[in-house]
C-alpha cells in the first residue's frame, strides 16, 4: 500500500453532542464500523474510536471528496450541528488532542490513552490500518504519553467516576460520607467509580456485576468495598442505596422503572455509553437520574486549574504536528522517487542485457568489460534522475502533491503493458522515461547508437 492519500475524519463528541446523540453514533462496534467504511468507494484504510464521550471515524482515500462521501452516513440520526467533519490536517491534530486529554470531558484524564490503543488494535486486527493511519495514530499515542509525562495535564486529574462523586457531593443534600453507595458494573469505568467512592469513605459500598466473580475480585482489590453481588438482586440493592453509579458495557438498559419501585430517595449517575438507566426512571418519585451531560459543570473547575498545563500541551502538539507532516512529505517524496528509480532500473536491466548480447555476438566480452557496461548504465540513470529527484523533494517540501501524485502514476513499476518489440531498440531514452514518456526511436537508429558508444568506451580499456 502506498503512503499516498489523505485522511478524512468525523466526530460526534460531548463538546457538541448530547449523550443520546453520542449513543446513536455508537450503535455499532469498531469492527463493524471499519468493515463498512472499507467497503466504500476509494477507502483504503479506516479507524473508529468509541468512548463514553465520543464516537469518531477516520478514512484514507486518494481524494478528499471520496473521504467525505464515505463518512456522510456515519451518524445519520444526529443533527448536523453535532457532527464535526475534519479534513486531513484537522484529523491529525484532533487525534493528538484526543490522546493528550485536551478533548476529554475531564481535562487530561488518563483512560483515553488505553481506549485509543484498544481501538487501534481492534482496527488493526480487522485489517483496516495502513501506513497513513498507523503513522497518525502512533504519533497521537506518543503525544498523549508525552503530555502526561512532561506536563501536569493529569496532575490531580479526575476520572468520570470521581467526577460523578463530586456531582453526588454537590447534589445529595447530606454528607456523601454517610451515604450507602452502589456501583453497577465491574469493568474499567466501574472500577474507577468504586475507587472514587471508596476514597471518600462512604458508609457502605456494594459492587454489582452480571458476573459475580468479577465484582468479588474488585472487592478484594479495592479496600472499602463492603460487598459484591450479581444483577439478579438489583431491585433490592437499589432500594438500599442512596447513590448509584452505573458503568456497564451492556447494549441494553440495565436499570428501569420497575427496578426502582421501592428505591425511595435515590441518586443515579449513569456514566455508561450506551446508557445503563432508562430515562423514564427519572419519573419515579424520589429518584433523580443524571448522565454524562450533567458532569460538565463538575469538571469546569478542573479545566481551569490545569489551564497552564493545557497551554504546554498545545505547544507540544504544534511541534509534533509539524514533525508528522514533515514525515508524511518525506515518505510521499521517497515513494515517488523509489518508483522512478525502479522504473529506470527495469529499463536499464533490459537494455544492458540487449547491449551485452549484441557485443557478445560481435566477439565476446570479459568480466571487466561487462562491469564497464553496467557502470555506464548506472551513471546514466544517476545523472538523468538527479534533477527529477531534487524536484520531487522540493515538491514535497512545498506541499505540491499534484506533482508527487503525477510522478507516482508515471513511474508506477507495473510493466505488464510495456513490452519490448522483437527488434528491440538498444537505446531506452531514460530522459523520456523521466518525463513520463515511453522510449521512442527518432532520428538516428538507436539500435546502433548505444552499441557504438559502448564499443568506444570498451576500446578505451
TrEMBL record:
Say if the entry is tagged with keyword rRNA-binding: no
Could you say which residues bind substrate here? 51-54, 104, 109-111, 115
UniProt xrefs under InterPro entries: 4pyrrol_synth_GluRdtase, 4pyrrol_synth_GluRdtase_dimer, 4pyrrol_synth_GluRdtase_N, GluRdtase_CS, GluRdtase_dimer_dom_sf, GluRdtase_N_sf, NAD(P)-bd_dom_sf, Shikm_DH/Glu-tRNA_Rdtase
Q: Which residues form the Tetrapyrrole biosynthesis glutamyl-tRNA reductase dimerisation domain?
A: 312-412
SUPFAM superfamilies xrefs = Glutamyl tRNA-reductase catalytic, N-terminal domain, Glutamyl tRNA-reductase dimerization domain, NAD(P)-binding Rossmann-fold domains
Annotated binding of NADP(+), by residue: 185-190
Q: In which pathway does it act?
A: Porphyrin-containing compound metabolism; protoporphyrin-IX biosynthesis; 5-aminolevulinate from L-glutamyl-tRNA(Glu): step 1/2
Q: Where is this region: Disordered?
A: 415-461
| All residue ranges annotated as the Glutamyl-tRNA reductase N-terminal domain in the record | 10-151
EC top class named in words? oxidoreductase
Q: Which E.C. number(s) belong to this protein?
A: 1.2.1.70
Q: Which Pfam families match?
A: GlutR_dimer, GlutR_N, Shikimate_DH
The entry assigns this protein to a family as follows: Belongs to the glutamyl-tRNA reductase family.
Q: What else is known?
A: During catalysis, the active site Cys acts as a nucleophile attacking the alpha-carbonyl group of tRNA-bound glutamate with the formation of a thioester intermediate between enzyme and glutamate, and the concomitant release of tRNA(Glu). The thioester intermediate is finally reduced by direct hydride transfer from NADPH, to form the product GSA.
> What this chain does, per the record?
Catalyzes the NADPH-dependent reduction of glutamyl-tRNA(Glu) to glutamate 1-semialdehyde (GSA).
Q: What is known of its domains?
A: Possesses an unusual extended V-shaped dimeric structure with each monomer consisting of three distinct domains arranged along a curved 'spinal' alpha-helix. The N-terminal catalytic domain specifically recognizes the glutamate moiety of the substrate. The second domain is the NADPH-binding domain, and the third C-terminal domain is responsible for dimerization.
Q: By what name is this protein known?
A: Glutamyl-tRNA reductase
Organism field: Haloferax profundi
Read off the lineage from the record. Archaea, Methanobacteriati, Methanobacteriota, Stenosarchaea group, Halobacteria
Q: Coding gene?
A: hemA
Amino acid at each position: 500500500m502506498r503512503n499516498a492519500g489523505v485522511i478524512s475524519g468525523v466526530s460526534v463528541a460531548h463538546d457538541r453532542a448530547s449523550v443520546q446523540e453520542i449513543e446513536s453514533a455508537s450503535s455499532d462496534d469498531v469492527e463493524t464500523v471499519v468493515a463498512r467504511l472499507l467497503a466504500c468507494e476509494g477507502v483504503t484504510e479506516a479507524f473508529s474510536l468509541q468512548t463514553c464521550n465520543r464516537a469518531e471515524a477516520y478514512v484514507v482515500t486518494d481524494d478528499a471528496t471520496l473521504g467525505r462521501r464515505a463518512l456522510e452516513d456515519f451518524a445519520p440520526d444526529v443533527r448536523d450541528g453535532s457532527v464535526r467533519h475534519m479534513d486531513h490536517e484537522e484529523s491529525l491534530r484532533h487525534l493528538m488532542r484526543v490522546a493528550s486529554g485536551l478533548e476529554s470531558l475531564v481535562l487530561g484524564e488518563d483512560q483515553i490513552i488505553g481506549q485509543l490503543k484498544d481501538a487501534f488494535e481492534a482496527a488493526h486486527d480487522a485489517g483496516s490500518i495502513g501506513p497513513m493511519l498507523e503513522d497518525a495514530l502512533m504519533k497521537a499515542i506518543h503525544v498523549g504519553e508525552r503530555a502526561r509525562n512532561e506536563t501536569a495535564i493529569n496532575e490531580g486529574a479526575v476520572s468520570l467516576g470521581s467526577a460523578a462523586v463530586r456531582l453526588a457531593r454537590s447534589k445529595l443534600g447530606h454528607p456523601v460520607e454517610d451515604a450507602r453507595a452502589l456501583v453497577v458494573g465491574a469493568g474499567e469505568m466501574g472500577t474507577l467509580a468504586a475507587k472514587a467512592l471508596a476514597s471518600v469513605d462512604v458508609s457502605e459500598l456494594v459492587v454489582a456485576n452480571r458476573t459475580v466473580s468479577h465484582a468479588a475480585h474488585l472487592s478484594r482489590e479495592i479496600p472499602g468495598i463492603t460487598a459484591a453481588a450479581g444483577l439478579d438482586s438489583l431491585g433490592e440493592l437499589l432500594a438500599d442505596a442512596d447513590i448509584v453509579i452505573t458503568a456497564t458495557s451492556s447494549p441494553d438498559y440495565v436499570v428501569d422503572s420497575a427496578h426502582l419501585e421501592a428505591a425511595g430517595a435515590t441518586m443515579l449517575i449513569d456514566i455508561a455509553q450506551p446508557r445503563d438507566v432508562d430515562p423514564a426512571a427519572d419519573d419515579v418519585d424520589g429518584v433523580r437520574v443524571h448522565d454524562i451531560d450533567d458532569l460538565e459543570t463538575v469538571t469546569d473547575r478542573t479545566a481551569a486549574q490545569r489551564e497552564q498545563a493545557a497551554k504546554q500541551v498545545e505547544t507540544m502538539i504544534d511541534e509534533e504536528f509539524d514533525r508528522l507532516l514533515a514525515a508524511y512529505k518525506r515518505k510521499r517524496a521517497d515513494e515517488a522517487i523509489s518508483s522512478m528509480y525502479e522504473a529506470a532500473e527495469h529499463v536499464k536491466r533490459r537494455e544492458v542485457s540487449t547491449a551485452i548480447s549484441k557485443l557478445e555476438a560481435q566477439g565476446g566480452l570479459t568480466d571487466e568489460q561487462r562491469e564497464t557496461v553496467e557502470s555506464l548504465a548506472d551513471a546514466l540513470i544517476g545523472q538523468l534522475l538527479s534533477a527529477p529527484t531534487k524536484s520531487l523533494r522540493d515538491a514535497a517540501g512545498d506541499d505540491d502533491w499534484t506533482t508527487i501524485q503525477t510522478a507516482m502514476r508515471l513511474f508506477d513499476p507495473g510493466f505488464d503493458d510495456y513490452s519490448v518489440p522483437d527488434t528491440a531498440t538498444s537505446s531506452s531514452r531514460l530522459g523520456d522515461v523521466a518525463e513520463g514518456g515511453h522510449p521512442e526511436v527518432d532520428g538516428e537508429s538507436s539500435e546502433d547508437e548505444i552499441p557504438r558508444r559502448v564499443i568506444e568506451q570498451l576500446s578505451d580499456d
